[in-house]
Here is the input.
Amino acid sequence: MLRSLFGRDWKNSPAHLLLLSKFLSPKAPADFAKKENWASLLEESPEKAIKRFLDDRMIELVSLEELLEYKCKVTELKKLLKQRGLSTSGNKDELVRRLVQSDPEDMRKEAAGLLVYKCIKAGEEIAKKYVTGENEKKEIIQRSVLDALNKRNFKEAAKLVANYEASRLIPRGVNIDWKNYDTSRDIAMLTAIFEHKPKMLAQLDDRQLEQLRTVAAMMYLWSYSYADYPLPPDFKTGLTIANDVAISMLLANVQFHNEIAECRKSQAEWKGVPHVIEIYNCNDNLVCSACKQIGRKYYSLKDVPELPYEKCTCEHGCRCWITWSTDITSSKT
Ligand SMILES: [Zn+2]
Here is the structure.
């Protein structure tokens, strides 16, 4: 395997291009090279690959200023400035510049041993082209996933994501076997997202709900945060809560229904021994009075109010949650 690389150009090796793209911004190989299995991906050590990039004038060591900027937090820079009786005002750039101007020797010592590289022009062009190509590939898959979600073909949606991850050099997640991925959990989750309509979101029309559900499903499937996959900026629900909160309420409702289903299953397994459900609140002053009222109380499966609580007026949405047990002796409130 090792020999094969030397017979060809590293520019045709996706692993080398991925590594090069790490240096689009200043980066110390020590910070990432060990985390992933770079040596087997590259079919040579990352050090060797980096030497190729240096020899081919793709990357360079960063300046002392950039090195300090990379290494030190603002608080550390201010500490160094204070120790030298220098002003601590200004942004990070200015703090670094002041330190290097006043004490270059000491600053070199401060950053000694840390190797940080960044792309130079030729490397930047190649790396950007690679990143753009990869993003385009992902966008095509994303569109197919959206299509599958629209058709309620959840198995297809989950499989598309799994196949995409399996095709990547460094797939998402730890110890996930994307090649033999079991989609059943995803299918159950997606079904629940598109099935439940939380009372709290009762005033939304079908179109609004569909959009919220689609974003929630994409966040779930791709492990996105809302910032990675937001709704269009002009999307309005008419609710007092923000769009990202509305989506988290949708997901909280799915979680609630999952818990209730588990509780019901357990109750059946216990031959009908009554289960008790307790509602908990966050212990802070952001909890609204409606949520406080239902919190710290015990309920049966029949009378537990749905979460997120429909009467909740918390700015950041209802953060109540439930636990359940068979322990009826502690259920007296
Ligand atoms: Zn509330």
Notes: The longest helix spans residues 121-150. The mean pLDDT is 92. The first strand starts at residue 59 and ends at 61. Residues 197 and 209 are 8 Å apart (CA to CA).
